[in-house]
Amino acid sequence: MAEEAIDRAEDGARPSRNALWVSAGALLATLALIALIFMIAWSNRARDDALGWERRTYDIMMRTRLIDTSIARAEAALGRYVLDENQHTGTDYYNEWRNADFQINQIQRLLSRDPDQARRVSDLRRLFEQRNRELSPAASAAERRTGSGGISLLYQAASSQTLPRLRATLDAIASAERSNLSDRMEQTQVFVERADKYTEWLGWLAILIGLGAVGLAILAWRAFLDSVRARREADSEAWRALGLEQAVEARTSELREANNRLQAEMIERAAAEAQLRQVQKMEAVGQLTGGIAHDFNNMLAVVVGGLDLARRKLHGPRREVEFHLDNAMEGATRAAALTRRLLAFARAEPLLPESISPSELIEGMLDLLDRAIGERIQVVTRFAEEPWTVFADPTRLENAILNLAVNARDAMPDGGRLTIAVDNIHAADHEIDDLPAGDYVRIEVTDTGTGISPEHLERVFEPFFTTKPVGKGTGLGLSQMFGFARQSGGHAAVQSELGQGTSVTLFLPRDASDAGAAARAAPKPARVEGDEQAVAAGAHRGARILVVEDDPRVARSTIGALEELGYRTLSASGGAEALDLLGSEADISLLITDVMMPEMTGTELAAAVRPLYPALPILFVTGYVGEAGDGLTGGEVLRKPFSVASLAAAVANALDVNGPRLPARDAAAE
Questions:
Q1: Can you list the domains of the chain with their CATH numbers?
Q2: Which of 134, 388, 400, 402 could be disulfide-bonded to 157 (CB atoms 3.0-4.6 Å)?
Q3: What is the pTM of this model?
Q4: Cβ–Cβ < 8 Å for 548, 480
Q5: H-type helices in 237-317, by residue range?
């Protein structure tokens, strides 16, 4: 039995050794084959390069002949041109001369790497230009049709030695190329012979590889027989597989535990990601707070500095005092504008909607748009034949259109076309983002500017995001417009392509209700038309006004302004005190109340006053409305901060619209 085992081991080792030798031979043959292929490729490339040099030499020699021929034809055509002064003959001369110039440029490009030939071509170019200067007077005389005047000039040019020297230079270039041609032909022949020799070696090597393949096939057959024998032996040991089942079950249990651990890690990772997102939100809030603080500090610096300088110059020239006060007022106005834009973005600034026609509003803005965007941009409008109305804040809509026009102007520095289109559409449910089905007015502003890149297009509605340089934009324009559209029950969208322009679309729901009733029910903004509105106080001078304000400094300022305008005033620090004064004081013509107050808001006070005194006009003063904005209907609205002129206009409007006054106490008793 032991001898049989030894024989089987020797029989198995012998094929293994044979296979090893054959495999080694096959590997060496493969390496030799790869080497021969590279050598043949290199020889073919060298042969192709040599052939390319031959073709270049033939090309240069041919171009030298073309140059000589073109110059000869040009001078012959010039002779005919001098004699007959025919324009067609002159054209032949100029065409042949330009053809010779083109061929010289080509030779100069082909021989730029050969120093000797490049020098000859440089001499050729110089002689060619010199010959051109010699022939130009005769050509110019023929072109002017001076009769036989050009013949003498042509004879004079013919006696020059430039043409023989030019042809000698061409012959020198061609001779040099012919001398190089034989060397390059010899190189080509060497590479061809070498490639043929390598190809012959490749054929013998292919025969050897074929013999090796036959040997490998024999070994593969023997290996197949061995695998059959091994399979039979494996079948006899199938019982060992039963023991593997237990191992598989144990491994499965381990994998199940690992899966549970992975799920726990996923939960922890999701919590960590949520925490990270919260941190990022806080970071964004911090950046926003820092930006607002920076802007407000700049504006407050203007206000404080202007007031301080005005106080220092109080006893000085009046012009300097007014100058510093104007600067302070400008800073305060800019701060108020920034506050309104932030409130509009946060959707905390109340809308003052009314029934308006976007087409008529935009048509009335055309002069303003022309001044804002300049003369280099053409404004094109397209309106629907029967314009629909929308129930929206006209001031906010004007600001949105003007902001889009300014953005389009910045995107078209070299001029272009701005198209404003207003269309009436009917949209299905969720056809426009998440808007319900219904009628909408589509306002589309399209420019032919530089467009917006795809990575920036997704962020255009983000607050404080802008692609403009520092100091050229706040990044609140589009986000404010988006907030206005959503507050108005609509939507805003942007489409853009680099180099093709940008299109911003505003969708506002159609106003299908009674426009007049809606306009009367809506809170009306106080219209300020300059200091002339202050004159309106004269018609109501002496009227008694109740001011309700929880901040004593604001109350003193408001009362002082009203008394400056000639009104009589009462003040209350809250709603309860105001109701007591209304019940005890007579002849109160107007109630001015802050909106956001502790214990009782201005809208709650108005709700309590209207049933008791329906004829009493109410003027709301607000800097931030919040949730109290729904109760502003039926009264005038004045935004903080306000000037004396705007206060005068608001009071005059409220008293004009609401003529009746609170009856006197005695009259009420009767």
A1: 12-209 (1.20.120), 355-517 (3.30.565.10), 524-669 (3.40.50.2300)
A2: 134
A3: 0.38
A4: no
A5: 240-312
